[in-house]
Amino acid sequence: MAGTSALPGDADLGGSSRPELHRSIGPFQLALYGLGSMLGSGVYGLMGQAAGQVGNAVWLAFLVALVAALLTALTYASLGSRYPRAGGAAYVAERAYRSPLIGFVVGLAVACSSLTSVATQSRVFAANLATLTGGGESTVTWLAIGFLLLLTGLVLRGIRESMWVNVLCTCIEAGGLLLVVAVGISYWGSVDLFETPPPGEAASDVMMLLVLQGAVLTFFAFIGFEDSLNVAEECRDPQRTIPIGLIAAMAMAAMIYMAVAITAVSVLPWRELAAAPGPLTAVMERAAPWLSPIVYTAITLFAVANTALVNYVTASRLAYGMSHQGLLPSWLGRVHATRRTPHLAILALFVVVAPLALIGTIGQLAAATVLLLLLVFALMNGALVLLKNRQGEPHGRFEIPAFLPILGCLVCACLVIVRVTTGDWRAPALAGGMIAGILVLYALFRPKADRLSANT
User: Fold this and answer.
1) Which of 114, 143, 188, 251 could cysteine-pair with 315, CB 3.0–4.6 Å?
2) What is each CA distance from 24 to 29, 137, 232, in whole angstroms?
3) Cα dist. 95→98, 100, 332, 386, 434 in Å?
4) Are 43 and 257 in contact, with CB atoms under 8 Å apart?
5) 88 φ/ψ angles, rounded to the nearest 5 degrees
6) Over the stretch 233-279, which tens digit does the pLDDT of each residue have?
7) Taking the model in full, what pTM does it have?
8) What is the enclosing helix (H) or strand (E) of 374?
9) Closest to 284 (Cα-Cα) out of 275, 295, 271
10) How many Å apart are CA 421 and CA 107, to the nearest integer?
């Protein structure tokens, strides 16, 4: 028999109980879960892009990005201590703005981001594995589907098993970055860490402007708030675990990123770093030529697999949570009697993500979902301000001053403007099209819920 549990605000959104997930996550596991989400596989290429913009001051760009991202992370930590629920952003948005439509848009925007990430990472994993086995394009396709099947089986198996695989992958992933620091630390002190591109090689010779431009790029290295919030119902003592785990993950990620950035520009001139197809691989070739390149290919496999795993778990818990809000079909909220996982949501996501993985070219879709995430972060910061000033709302164990989410909202809004005005037009256009599609879905499947809400 499935257990039931009452959560804060259940009665407000039309339900007094829901199937219970398995609570097995402590602060240490959640910190590594968040760290694995933040490190990801993108940092291996991101370091070169950032160096091209900021020069040797890339470490400073990461520090500024940390401060900007920390504003939203603190908001998520506070919301997690107030409303420890799966489907976190969708639930909080609906509750704060008193609008099922906003909850639906926010939830599906996060889901789109997670699903495109899983699809992209499955292709990257398959391509890297194919380079080791010598397979062609057809091999990549089959490997991608096989990887997704294994991932689905793991997530179906249980949150405990998924978390331990995540811990293993995160340790290997972080170990790869710390290896860069270990072999290159002897180069520290050999360069001017405040050197930036001279006039003519960059948009401006003003250092702070360059650092801010680099911070816009590196901000996305710290995104992992949603992943931590969506496993709230599987945390032990979530009101305490979520703030500790989320903030610890950001602190560890920041230290690793800045140490790797200092090492990278110390070992390689920033121009070479920016031009290298694999920046950290090039650093290792210079600092540790005795180490086989296959080692970093293997580490990349673990990093990619970890990113896909975290996003798959996030998407399935989001679908589970939204189903219990009445925003998605109720069958997505069913929980397996013995494994305590939302098995039907997990299987439904496989049906959606497998065709995306087969397409192979969804880079623009991934870029569009980044814009959607920034909009979600702005809304979540605004939601905390509303909820803090509303009578009768529960207080969490981790409360922050109202000016912090206000600043977080402004930062995210500025990042949206920067991305829209300075990047390719196709990603914003696609993001707008995705929002329009979400609104159409809502119009088709939610009119009855709207009428019920209006009557209430």
Assistant:
1) 114
2) 9, 40, 10
3) 5, 8, 21, 10, 23
4) yes
5) -50, -55
6) 888 888 899 999 999 999 999 999 999 999 999 999 988 888 887 78
7) 0.86
8) helix 363-388
9) 295
10) 26
